[in-house]
Amino acid sequence: MASTVVDRETPSTVVERDGAPRGRRWWIEIGWRHVVGIVTIVICIVPLVYVLSASLNPGGTLTGSNQLFRTIDLQNYRELFEGNYSSWFANSIVICTVTSIGTVLMGGAAAYAFSRFRFQGRQGGLTALLIVQMFPQMLAFVAIFLVLLSIGDVFPMLGLNSRLGLIAVYLGGALGVNTFLMYGFFNTVPRELDEAAKIDGATHAQIFWTIILRLVAPILAVVGLLSFIGTFGEFIIAKVVLQRPDEFTLAVGLYFWAADERNARWGLFAAGAVLAAIPVVLLFLALQRYIVSGLTAGSVKG
Amino acid sequence: MTDQQTLEPPAPPEAPGPRSPRRSRGDGSHARNFSAGFVVKLILVALVDALGVYGILAALAVQSWGILAFLVLALVAVNWIYFSKRAVPGKYLIPGLLFLLVYQLFVMAYTGYVAFTNYGDGHNSTKADAVEAISIQNETRVEGSPTLPLTVVQRDGELGFAVVQDGDAEVGTAEEPFTAADDATVEGERVTAVPGWEVLGFAQIAEQQAAITELRVPFSDDPSEGSVRTQDGSTGYVYQSTLVYDEATDTFTDSATGETYTPSESGNFVSEDGDVLTPGWRVGVGLDNFTRVFTDSRLAGPFAQITVWTFAFAFLSVLTTFAVGLFLAIVFNDPRIRGRKVYRSLLILPYAFPGFLSALVWKGMLNERFGFVNEVLLGGADIGWLTSPWLAKLSILMVNLWLGFPYMFIVCTGALQAIPADTIEAAKIDGAGAWRIFRSMTLPLLMISVAPLLIASFAFNFNNFTLIYMLTGGGPNFVGTPVVVGHTDLLISMVYSVAFESGNKQYGLASALSILIFIVVGAISYVGFRRTRKLEEI
Amino acid sequence: MRRSIPVVAATLGLALTLTACSGSGDTGDDTSAAPTESAGATGTLTMWVDDTRINEMEPVVATFTESTGIDVELVQKASGDIGKDFVAQVPTGEGPDVIISAHDGLGEWVNNGVVAPLELGDKAGDFSESAIAGVTYDGKVYGTPISIENIALVRNNALLTDTPAATFDELVAQAKSAGTPFSVLVQQGPDSDPYHLYPLQTSFGAPVFEQSADGSYTDTLSMGGPAGDAFAAYLAKLGAEGVLDLAVDGEKAKQAFLDGQAPYMITGPWNTSAFEEAGMDIAVLPVPSAGGQPAQPFVGVQGAFVSAKSENPVLANELVVNFLSTEAAQDALYAEGGRMPANSASAAKVDNGILKGFGEAGATGAPMPAIPAMSSVWAFWGATEAQIISGQAEPVSTWNTMVANVQDAVDKV
């Protein structure tokens, strides 16, 4: 579907390098993109308007009525900060930041190994990494509890009720699908660069830290972002590991408000979700610079 | 973020190789044998070793042999890999692999183990726990027996109870039935002192809780009159066991009927007549859980239909989210668009909200009579978005598209940066059309890094239980089927329905079924992955 | 004691803490000979509470800690997770000492051996029969009832002030006279809602399971037969008349009632607080009978239950049996949380008209079955009722197919 649209709309004319096109040309080359953007954003936002409306209505329902914004009252937001919400927020930011940095480093290192070295079991290892991720996690909540229980006997810091323990569990997934994304991207970095550096006497570690990582910044930012968002929304494992309300992550805390079907506090939940979306959007805004400034930054033309 | 890291390498750099003298960059210390990188490595490995040795000692103290063995092996591996010159790839793989081994593989191993047991409701723990539970559940208070104000007493480390019955104080122990203690002091309704005995206060009772709750003092010389026990240290009741466990023969005997219950292979105590005592315990059942899927007639009916839909759903979900995500990524990959940073950031909004919240909102919006789509957008139409079988399927795909395209959008935006602009520019000058450039250059190049993600996304959607559960619950349901499943159920939600919603929760069965599903998905992914390797060769 | 060394270590740790806490250095061997009357007991109980109840529980257990010296650590859990995690974690020895939960999981816990029987003794007389029935399984009491919940008919006094209806049909007719878009709201959803329809079902004499003489449920379904057929036909009728509409889900029903779009709604106390907050004037009444027999809602009992593997059985019993059961404790819980106390004396003091209305409607109710077989019923039940209400399937035969399928599933368990 997307491809046919591309076919019809993108002109093959050579674009002037300097100065934006005007008039009809502008519409053909640029203007329609704004239309696509606005339409898509409207579709993205409509369901979220319900969430925003519910967050401003202390006693209302989530989707009981299409008459939105009948009451505008910040009570839910005030109530958020009377409870543990701010410490959940902080916990989430810390846990997700550490997890995503860890994932980028470990995943990036693994991708480097797979991309640049030829060793026995490389192919098998790659395939295994991909397939392991597909294993059903149906019993994860029991298994993770058991494993943290025994680890806690030896390393209390990494056991149950520990945020560090939760980060460790999340890092268990560092070598996963994201490794492939990086692996593929690493492969596009010309090997000649490494070879040249090697001839200059650089070690593989220097090549990795100073050449490759810099060149693959876009994908590092993408993986960091994906890992951050993935961790940010994870609550199934987190609610097994963290039991004290002041240690919860946002996802766990929010889940509690919505978990009891009858007593669900949708207003509070919605307010919490609206605020929780802000760091994700801000992070993406901040990382975009890196995402779109790779090898080819600035030279890609539509 | 990444910039900083490239400036100060915190993790495993290598000692300078034999050709280091020719190195052009560096901190000037490479002439000596100990570069800064090596020092960093030394410190890091030393820290890991210290932690590991501490762990080994701690594991030894708590007798966690599994952890001990793992730590020893891990330490040896880490030290060998980082100080050997040969295991270069290992240096980059080991940190991630260690975490993977501990957390992911344990879940796999545990699930695999459970699949061969009858773990689930009624078979939840060990045999010892089951024996204990049956015993306490079958110790009943003698009907019409009095409530006895009770005092816990102790003499030479032997615990006893002092009770007041009909105004008279009596003392007894596990060995000796209650006998009158005329010299005891009774204040209010309970004994406060007995000569020769120490009366325990609540704090002391709390210290010996287990012993006190396990103590049974025979009510009289006649064992059939039962024994006194207490649960709170201050009130006693007369109990009789209706089922008595005999350790020597490993059987339960019903004290009223004399019937004996012997342990069965399926992990229960069973009488000759087939009466079963609960709880049972966890036992291995071999391949039973795996074969049940083929022998359970209830599963046969809708199985084929659900399988087809599961494949269709997973495939179409990947196709639609990728198509839309890629399209949007290409659309906004043009630096001439003003405000594209803002566009992009808003496009990921569906991804930034909790998925189950969005699914609930969509469920409300697609409501047949009152939903936003019918009532507002379509001016009061009566379209059964979630109640007609085909529309429900369509709705699920659309909602999943809404939820999933931002992921593909982010991935494609990143991956597009790897495509050399010069090549594309050259093709354009050669007069290639946009479609041709896309088909023969952009897409193949993109696929190299994105194809494995598409496979993973296929596998994820194949088991996308949450979406189905939140949006339609599998409905609209088939009429009259012996298992409650519906037109939008996936294989995984059928497993859930069979293993968890039909009476007892059966983790063993659920694990076995989900492993079977995993084998199917894994095989498809393996084949798909092999094919993407060919793409790479281009 | 499988994990002997950790236990020893824990005990050592505890001993150290004790020494540190007492701080007076007189904990030598010989001092223990002196009997102490002091309440200086020590130890910590872990109690799981769902997040809607944790705030009311906190001050109440604080009083307990004050008078006994036993610390109670409250752990917040989602209500749906308490039973599940209890079953999963008790066997590891790391579970809680006490949980506060709805009683309908009791059968599962007993079946898994994770809950310990309690002896309420004479205190059992302080509770209503249905409350005790809720925490009883197989003739044994396993918990202390804390509060009671059931649904009833809620009336919007701004639309109608008098309910002369003796039957459900009359009620619908009267409600229609109010001229609102909805008559009697009963929340539905794509899979209907058997819980909210249960008063209608029982009024036809078709309870879900047969009850034995002592009131406990057996595994034999009782939904079939002529009574069940009549109910199925009635459901189809209500569906055709538009009284029941699958599109009216919980959210829509609540919002419609809040907006004054219906004079009546069958719902529970969890919604009435929102109605009151919105300034509505409401009254709570029993649901009129549709089939001639009393309309019995399910009664849910929140109870306190003790883990079978608690390391502090005495302390846990002290809390659950000797403290939470008392009038004073239940008064305090009511004052904090506003839920109908299970203790009869506390309940008698409740002067809130709405809660009293629910209490009266629930007096004749049937305890929610706690037998494991119940979990096989819900999915079939809801799916079938939905198909009947929507007119998608022939009522009587579909209902009977369901009864056969459920009995089959129950017997397989």
UniProtKB/TrEMBL annotation, chain A:
<dbReference type="GO" id="GO:0042956">
    <property type="term" value="P:maltodextrin transmembrane transport"/>
</dbReference>
<dbReference type="GO" id="GO:0015423">
    <property type="term" value="F:ABC-type maltose transporter activity"/>
</dbReference>
<dbReference type="Pfam" id="PF00528">
    <property type="entry name" value="BPD_transp_1"/>
</dbReference>
<feature type="transmembrane region" description="Helical">
    <location>
        <begin position="164"/>
        <end position="186"/>
    </location>
</feature>
<dbReference type="InterPro" id="IPR000515">
    <property type="entry name" value="MetI-like"/>
</dbReference>
<dbReference type="InterPro" id="IPR035906">
    <property type="entry name" value="MetI-like_sf"/>
</dbReference>
<protein>
    <submittedName>
        <fullName>Sugar ABC transporter permease</fullName>
    </submittedName>
</protein>
<comment type="similarity">
    <text>Belongs to the binding-protein-dependent transport system permease family. MalFG subfamily.</text>
</comment>
<dbReference type="InterPro" id="IPR050901">
    <property type="entry name" value="BP-dep_ABC_trans_perm"/>
</dbReference>
<feature type="transmembrane region" description="Helical">
    <location>
        <begin position="88"/>
        <end position="114"/>
    </location>
</feature>
<keyword id="KW-0812">Transmembrane</keyword>
<keyword id="KW-0813">Transport</keyword>
<keyword id="KW-0762">Sugar transport</keyword>
<feature type="domain" description="ABC transmembrane type-1">
    <location>
        <begin position="89"/>
        <end position="287"/>
    </location>
</feature>
<feature type="transmembrane region" description="Helical">
    <location>
        <begin position="32"/>
        <end position="52"/>
    </location>
</feature>
TrEMBL record, chain B:
<protein>
    <recommendedName>
        <fullName>Maltose/maltodextrin transport system permease protein</fullName>
    </recommendedName>
</protein>
<feature type="transmembrane region" description="Helical">
    <location>
        <begin position="65"/>
        <end position="83"/>
    </location>
</feature>
<dbReference type="Pfam" id="PF00528">
    <property type="entry name" value="BPD_transp_1"/>
</dbReference>
<feature type="region of interest" description="Disordered">
    <location>
        <begin position="1"/>
        <end position="29"/>
    </location>
</feature>
<dbReference type="GO" id="GO:0015423">
    <property type="term" value="F:ABC-type maltose transporter activity"/>
</dbReference>
<keyword id="KW-1133">Transmembrane helix</keyword>
<feature type="transmembrane region" description="Helical">
    <location>
        <begin position="342"/>
        <end position="362"/>
    </location>
</feature>
<keyword id="KW-0812">Transmembrane</keyword>
<keyword id="KW-0813">Transport</keyword>
<dbReference type="InterPro" id="IPR032550">
    <property type="entry name" value="TM_PBP2_N"/>
</dbReference>
<feature type="transmembrane region" description="Helical">
    <location>
        <begin position="308"/>
        <end position="330"/>
    </location>
</feature>
<dbReference type="InterPro" id="IPR000515">
    <property type="entry name" value="MetI-like"/>
</dbReference>
<dbReference type="Pfam" id="PF16296">
    <property type="entry name" value="TM_PBP2_N"/>
</dbReference>
<keyword id="KW-0762">Sugar transport</keyword>
<keyword id="KW-0472">Membrane</keyword>
UniProtKB/TrEMBL annotation, chain C:
<keyword id="KW-0762">Sugar transport</keyword>
<comment type="similarity">
    <text>Belongs to the bacterial solute-binding protein 1 family.</text>
</comment>
<dbReference type="GO" id="GO:0042956">
    <property type="term" value="P:maltodextrin transmembrane transport"/>
</dbReference>
<dbReference type="InterPro" id="IPR006060">
    <property type="entry name" value="Maltose/Cyclodextrin-bd"/>
</dbReference>
<keyword id="KW-0732">Signal</keyword>
<dbReference type="InterPro" id="IPR006059">
    <property type="entry name" value="SBP"/>
</dbReference>
<protein>
    <submittedName>
        <fullName>Sugar ABC transporter substrate-binding protein</fullName>
    </submittedName>
</protein>
<dbReference type="GO" id="GO:0015768">
    <property type="term" value="P:maltose transport"/>
</dbReference>
<dbReference type="Pfam" id="PF13416">
    <property type="entry name" value="SBP_bac_8"/>
</dbReference>
<dbReference type="GO" id="GO:0015144">
    <property type="term" value="F:carbohydrate transmembrane transporter activity"/>
</dbReference>
<keyword id="KW-0813">Transport</keyword>
<dbReference type="GO" id="GO:0055052">
    <property type="term" value="C:ATP-binding cassette (ABC) transporter complex, substrate-binding subunit-containing"/>
</dbReference>
<feature type="signal peptide">
    <location>
        <begin position="1"/>
        <end position="20"/>
    </location>
</feature>
<dbReference type="GO" id="GO:1901982">
    <property type="term" value="F:maltose binding"/>
</dbReference>
